[in-house]
Amino acid sequence: MKALLTAEFDMEYLPRLESLCEVTVAGWGKEHRKLSEDELIDLLQGQDILITSYDPVTEKVIRSSNSLRLIMCTRSNPVNIDVPAASRRGIPVVYTPGRNSDSTAEFTIAMMLNIARQIPMAYKSLKDGKYLAKGGVKGNKAYVLGEDVTWALGEESPYVVFKGVQLKGKRLGVIGYGRIGQKVAAIARALGMYIYVYDPYMPAVFIDDNTTKKVSLQTLLTESDFVTCHVKVTKETKGLIGREELKLMKPTAFFINTSRGAVVDEEALIEALRNRKIRGAALDVFESEPLDPDHPFVKELDNVVITPHLAGATYDVLTIHTKMILDELERFMNGQRLLFQYTEVL
Question: Does residue 328 carry a catalytic annotation?
Answer without folding.
Answer: no
